[in-house]
Design goal:
By secondary structure, this protein is of the alpha/beta class. It has 2 domains: about 50-195, Lysozyme-like, CATH 3.40.80; about 205-280, PGBD-like superfamily/PGBD (Muramoyl-pentapeptide Carboxypeptidase, domain 1, Orthogonal Bundle). About 30% of the residues lie in helices and about 15% in strands. It has helices at about 60-70, 145-160, 170-175, 190-195, 205-210, 220-230, 245-255, 265-280, and strands spanning about 5, 25-30, 35-40, 50-55, 80, 85, 90, 95, 110, 115, 120-125, 130-135, 135-140, 170. A 5-stranded mixed β-sheet has the order 8-5-11-4-14. Strands 1-2-3 form a 3-stranded antiparallel β-sheet, with no helix packed on it. One of its GO terms (cellular component) is outer membrane. It catalyses: Hydrolyzes the link between N-acetylmuramoyl residues and L-amino acid residues in certain cell-wall glycopeptides. Keywords: Cell wall biogenesis/degradation, Hydrolase, Signal. Its EC number is 3.5.1.28.
Length: about 280
């Protein structure tokens, strides 16, 4: 077991020419058995490994969520139950993985030129079925109010401690748009942003980029691809609405325009993307 030895004394050493060396401050040595580590000289050139905060839904119930995330091949740092319990009036979140450990929640993923987002992120899973299939298509399941309240409190704390940028608070579908849809269009991104959690475009800037055109009119696919890449998405730069581009646009719309996320490259999507780049990637 590591022993921490506090060296409270200092040694005043004089050289043969009579030079006096500055006193060394009290230091902490960590005993590693056959060697010791001196931690008294921390470098200023360092930062936290955590750069991203990723939200998910579990797509299964509470019991199955806990089983899969603790005994399966995936994990997350935190799990928010469908109806969080309270202790002394405070909602309780389940921590499954310590924040200084890597959880297996992101899978094959990328954002802003970085891959393997598991390495640099904290993952929050929320118990939610995601969607139910119906004759009219997918019916997306709303989150319970107590879940989003707890998610906001947890997220604000994590963001403050690691100084996570707004554009790095993300959906699983943002970092893996070709294979994931969570946390889905029912996740309250706009309300979260109003509480200082994540990014959201300024309405006036979006209107400026619309230039008086109808929101559903055709957008410029090239501009959309360029803007989404600048913001952080991994997206082709083909100038055409290929299958991969459509999937990425749909993921973007699910986050920033959940009322319509068909993947169509319309003018409003272009305006929102450019407004986000202006606000978060090119601040004046």
């Amino acid at each position: 077991m590591k022993k921490i030895i506090l060296l409270l004394g200092v040694l005043g050493l004089a050289g043969c020419a009579g030079h006096h060396y500055a006193e060394k401050p009290a230091t902490t040595l960590i005993d590693h058995g056959d060697y010791a580590v001196d931690t008294s000289s921390p470098s200023q050139s360092q930062d936290d490994r955590v750069r991203f905060l990723i939200f998910h839904y579990t797509a299964v119930d509470d019991n199955e969520s806990l089983r899969l995330l603790t005994h399966g091949s995936v994990s997350a740092h935190y799990l928010i139950p469908s109806h969080p319990t309270e202790i002394h009036g405070k909602p309780v979140v389940l921590q499954l993985v310590p924040e200084n450990k890597r959880a297996w929640h992101a899978g094959v993923s990328g954002w802003a030129g970085r891959n393997n987002i598991n390495d640099t992120s904290i993952g929050i899973e929320i118990v939610n079925d995601g969607f139910h299939e119906s004759p009219t298509g997918k019916q997306w399941i709303p989150y319970h109010k107590e879940q989003t309240v707890l998610a906001a409190r947890l997220a604000r704390d994590i963001i403050a401690r690691y100084q996570i940028k707004p554009q790095n608070v993300l959906a699983h579908s943002d970092i893996a748009p070709l294979r994931k849809t969570d946390p889905g269009p029912q996740f309250p991104w706009r309300e979260m942003a109003q509480q200082g959690i994540g990014a959201w475009p300024d309405a006036a800037t979006v209107d400026n980029y619309l230039q008086g055109k109808h929101r559903w009119s055709a957008g410029n696919v090239t501009l959309i691809q360029q803007a989404l890449a600048a913001y952080g998405y991994t997206i082709p730069q083909t100038g055409t609405l290929d299958k991969e581009t459509l999937r990425v646009i749909s993921a973007f719309q699910m986050h920033f325009r959940p009322s319509n996320f068909t993947g169509v490259a319309d003018k409003e999507t272009e305006a929102i993307a450019r407004a986000l780049v202006e606000k978060y990637c090119n601040p004046t």
